[in-house]
Design brief:
By secondary structure, the chain is an alpha/beta fold. The protein folds into 2 domains: 168 residues, Rossmann fold; 184 residues, Dehydroquinate synthase-like - alpha domain (Dehydroquinate synthase-like, alpha domain, Up-down Bundle), CATH 1.20.1090.10. The strands form 3 sheets. It has a 7-stranded mixed beta sheet with strand order 1-2-9-6-5-3-4, sandwiched between helices. A two-stranded antiparallel sheet has the order 7-8. A hairpin with a 2-residue loop joins β1 and β2. α3 packs across α4. The N and C termini lie far apart (44 Å). The relative contact order is 0.11. Bound molecules: nicotinamide-adenine-dinucleotide and zinc ion. Nicotinamide-adenine-dinucleotide (NAD) binds next to α2, α4, α5 and β8. The site of zinc ion has 4 residues, from α11.
């Protein structure tokens, strides 16, 4: 099968394959990357294991050592990391072995970090099974775990050998996991591709129905957009990658102040995008129509985006502590129109609080 996309990075490149049904017909692709002798590991979580591990291993026709972590963010921990390393070491993996991550962003980030560090780095293949992982976390090479109270603060850039995406697995996702991923999808349109934004507007019914042809194209377009950004700024040193943080300054603050998991990540991002668009309009960087056009699409895709009414002052304080500040100064990624954003600094507390207040209304 021909790759759907090739992602370039400084040490080479890797293919992304996207096709409905791929999970059960990927043996040829795996054959290109996995050594025929020796042990390989399949890292997954308890939910995905129950749903897909058996069908996958049967179809893949390789002998995998299965490593299952508990489903949920808590598995991105030192304890799980060590447990996994122990498991694969005693299971006989060596430098020729490959680690396959089957699951959402949690198994992907965790298994990727294990692959990056076991024996100083071994090959790694991503098979993302949430929409968020398919359009975001499986592309770009960021892997890692959390320290208590500090997300993704230990990790490595480690590129996969290949990414295999089967959109049919989205059918078993909880609705809120799906709409959470869709927020990142809308984000790509707003930050860099007005044509894609229009495409989402015209295809929103098919997206809501999870039409497979539509979802395949959607994932393809998002992976291409993310690849374009990370190819320009692989290690987040040139500023380009910062545009992916649109909505995230607000979202990280919401997650911190309200507690992780209270809102699904993408819903917090949608609330943040709504507040950021209002902030851009208040600063006269963008026309008000950007706010309404974005809110309308979020609503059509059933993505909650109404900003919380409480704790605005705490949210402001949490933003000041965000690790994404540049030289100690907070930057906002703000739209100038649909399809373009700018990095803006020196935004006053009053303007930010006013935007949070207004974003408490859905406005479309
Ligand atoms: N590496 C990156 O660049 C990057 C980017 C964005 C997010 N992330 C990370 O990704 C994580 C969030 O990812 P996520 O939302 O995929 O979380 P997740 O892996 O916890 O998956 C969410 C839930 O969906 C379940 N699930 C997965 N696939 C399923 C399927 N097909 N059907 C039914 N249930 C399924 C999981 O068991 C879990 O309960 C966070 O830790 C975040 O930091 C990383
Ligand atoms: Zn995000």
């Amino acid at each position: 099968m021909k790759p759907s996309l090739i992602v370039n990075h400084r040490f080479g490149n890797y293919p992304i394959y996207i096709r409905a049904g791929l999970l059960e017909c990927c043996t040829d692709i795996l054959g290109e990357f996995l050594a025929t002798s020796g042990q390989h590991a399949l890292v997954t979580d308890s939910n995905v294991e129950r749903l897909y591990a058996q069908a996958f291993t049967k179809a893949a026709n390789f002998d995998f050592q299965k490593q299952i972590c508990p489903a949920g963010e808590a598995s991105k921990s030192f304890a799980q990391y060590e447990h996994l390393l122990d498991g694969i070491l005693h299971g006989g993996l060596d430098r020729q072995s490959t680690i396959i991550a089957l699951g959402g962003g949690v198994p992907g980030d965790l298994a990727g970090f294990v692959a990056a560090t076991f024996m100083r780095g071994i090959p790694f293949i991503q098979i993302p099974t949430t929409l968020l992982a398919q359009v975001d976390s499986s592309v770009g090479g960021k892997t890692g775990i959390n320290l208590a109270g500090s997300k993704n603060s230990v990790g490595a850039f480690w590129q996969p050998q290949a990414v295999l995406i089967d959109p049919t697995v989205l059918q078993t996702l909880e609705p809120e996991q799906l709409t959470s991923g869709l927020a990142e999808v809308v984000k790509y349109g707003v930050i860099m591709d007005a044509e894609f934004f229009l495409w989402l507007e015209s295809n929103s019914d098919a997206v809501n129905d999870l039409d497979m042809e539509t979802m395949t194209e959607l994932i393809h377009r998002c992976c291409a957009l993310k690849a374009e950004v990370v190819e320009e700024d692989e290690r987040e040193t040139r500023g380009r990658r910062a545009i992916l943080n649109y909505g995230h300054t607000f979202a990280h603050a919401i997650e911190k102040v309200f507690g992780y998991g209270v809102f699904p990540h993408g819903h917090a991002v949608a609330m943040g995008m709504h507040a950021a668009a209002i902030l851009a309009a208040n600063l006269r960087l963008a026309d008000r129509s950007v706010v309404t056009q974005q809110a309308k699409l979020l609503k059509r895709l059933q993505i909650p985006h109404q900003f919380p009414h409480e704790h605005h002052d705490e949210l402001w304080k949490a933003m000041q502590r965000d690790k994404k500040t540049v030289a100690g100064e907070l930057h906002f990624v703000l739209p100038t129109r649909i399809g373009n954003v700018e990095l803006v600094k020196s935004v006053s507390r009053a303007k930010v609080l006013e935007s949070m207040e207004l974003a408490g209304h859905t406005m479309e």
